[in-house]
Design goal:
Blueprint: E1 2-4, E2 10-13, E3 16-18, H1 23-34, E4 40-41, H2 42-50, H3 58-77, H4 79-85, E5 86-89, E6 92-95, H5 103-119, H6 123-134, H7 149-175, H8 179-192, H9 197-209, H10 213-231, H11 237-248
Antiparallel strand pairs: 1-2, 2-3, 4-6, 5-6
Helix pairs in contact: 1-3, 2-3, 3-4, 5-6, 5-7, 6-7, 8-9, 9-10, 9-11, 10-11
Length: 251
């Protein structure tokens, strides 16, 4: 059985795709998956589901959600898999599953391979591994799950890791002079992360290297206005240097 959280959460057993329909049961599953093979305390489950205002029946209700999840696993995946998937382990519960069955763990392993290749000077391999890692993403993590404080922290950390791998991919692709194919990717990134000046800088540089000097200056101007109007900031030194590189390049 595989568990996917880099997008809508799903459990996959061969060709069978299963997702709980009840929102809070889905939250509990997300917690168990993100802490797979480690104990998730009942206290953590309650904190995720209700924050600082748990009902008096919180313990019993949380235990009911675990029961419902176990029963759903049995119904969807069969007695053998369902009964062994979630086990009681004081002070809470554990989802037992191989690490390779978790998409976010596989993403992290691929990212580590990419970093190792870059450190070793193999830029081509680093670019390939980052592409493989990023291809595992299907959208916003836990896109179909209501997120309380605990899950939101996990999602934020996953997003930060994704940004880091995207930066690594851009660095590798720039070194390989893949400027033309990077432009579309960088345009998408600056829309998604408009205040990330590193992405803005790389877009200016990639456009210029691709022979699109006017568009590079337009990208710089757009970034400068955004930073001024939204944050009251001047462009960073790196972004200004990118503009200067464009101005100094042959027409």
């Amino acid at each position: 059985m595989e568990f996917k959280v880099l997008g809508p959460i799903v459990a996959v057993n061969k060709r069978l795709v299963f997702t709980p329909s009840a929102p809070k049961v889905k939250q509990v599953l997300a917690l168990l998956v993100l802490r797979a093979n480690h104990v998730v305390s009942l206290e953590t489950i309650i904190d995720e589901l209700w924050g600082d205002h748990p009902p008096r029946t919180a313990i019993t209700t949380a235990q009911t959600y675990i029961y419902q999840l176990r029963r759903a696993f049995v119904m969807e995946l069969g007695d053998k898999l369902g009964d062994r998937a979630i086990v009681t382990a004081p002070p809470g519960y554990v989802l037992r599953t191989p690490e390779e069955s978790l998409d976010f763990r596989n993403f992290e392993r691929l990212a580590e391979r990419a970093r190792a290749c870059r450190t070793a000077g193999d830029t081509e391999a680093s670019a390939r591994w980052t592409e493989s890692a990023l291809a595992m993403w299907q959208g916003v993590p836990l896109a179909n799950v209501e997120r309380g404080p605990v899950l939101q922290n996990y999602v934020s950390r996953l997003e930060e890791k994704r940004v880091s791998v995207r930066e690594l991919h851009i660095r590798s692709a720039m070194e390989l002079k893949r400027y033309h194919e990077l432009v579309a990717e960088l345009r998408s990134l600056v829309l998604e992360y408009p205040f990330n000046e590193w992405f803005q800088t790389q877009l200016v540089l990639a456009l210029n290297k691709a022979g699109r000097r006017v568009e590079a200056l337009q990208a710089y101007q757009k970034a400068r206005v955004l930073l001024r109007d939204e944050l009251g900031l001047d462009p960073s030194d790196d972004l200004r240097r990118a503009q200067q590189e464009v101005l100094n390049s042959p027409s």
